[in-house]
Amino acid sequence: MADLTNSTTVPTSVAPIYASFGRRLLASLLDGMIVAIPSFALSFVLTLLLGEQEAITVLLQMSISIIYYVLLTGLNGQTLGKMALGIKVVRVDNGNVPGIGKAILREILGKMINSFTFLIGYFWMLWDGKKQTIHDKIASTIVVRV
User: Fold this and answer.
1) What is the pTM assigned to this prediction?
2) Please, which residues have CB within 8 angstroms of residue 141's CB and are 6 or more apart in sequence?
3) d(C-alpha 18, C-alpha 22), whole Å
4) 96 φ, ψ to 5°?
5) Contact yes or no for 77/90 (Cβ under 8 A)
6) Taking 50 as the threshold, does the pLDDT of residue 2 lie above it?
7) Cβ 110 vs Cβ 135: under 8 Å
8) Contact 97, 75 (CB under 8 A)
9) Read out DSSP for 22-85?
10) Taken in order 100, 105, 109, 111, is the CA torsion positive or negative?
11) CA distances from 50 to 20, 53, 102, 111 (A)
């Protein structure tokens, strides 16, 4: 498969190679660390400046996560963790990057639903033909190797 790291479209003439559970899990763990570091640092500074402000800290951490995942997935199809592992989120219908709207569906609504289903939505890909999780199905996306 051609190098697609800078491309916005996965070629339709080549069958996509779906990303494995392990590769997606590792990318997710990397992304978690990438988001946690600035969130923790900013929360620490806010706590020092404002005292015990748990609500502000939680909102700050949620905001950083939403901005990171929605913007990178929507605009590039890849977070930093996905880039490191050579995988990309693309639309099922045309192979393009998802765009902000689908990224919101995938990263906020879909992942919220996954959390309400005791995370079974993440494991759905293990028996799905296109290796889609529930949040992929909600946003009509797939995750492919690049």
Assistant:
1) 0.84
2) 89, 90, 91, 92, 98, 102, 106, 132
3) 12
4) -80, 165
5) yes
6) no
7) yes
8) yes
9) HHHHHHHHHHHHHHHHHHHHHHHHHHHHHSS-HHHHHHHHHHHHHHHHHHHHHHHS--HHHHHH
10) negative
11) 44, 7, 36, 31
In which element (H, E) is residue 145 found? Answer: strand 141-145
Cβ-based burial of 59 (10 A; exposed 0-12, middle 13-18, buried ≥19): exposed
**140 CB contacts (<8 Å, ≥6 apart)?**
91, 92, 93, 102
For 130, residues 6+ apart whose C-beta sits below 8 A from its C-beta are 18, 92, 136, 142
Q: Which residues pair with 142 in a beta bridge?
A: 90
* The two three-digit tokens of residue 51, written as one number: 């005292």
Per-residue b or e along 99-134, where b marks 16 or more CB atoms closer than 10 Å to that residue's CB? eeebbbbbbeebbeebeeeeeebbebbeeeeebbbb
Place of tokens 């051609």: 2
How big is the chain, counted in residues?
146
The band of 119, judged by pLDDT with boundaries at 50, 70 and 90, is confident
Distances 56 to 35, 53, 95 between C-alpha atoms, Å: 17, 6, 38
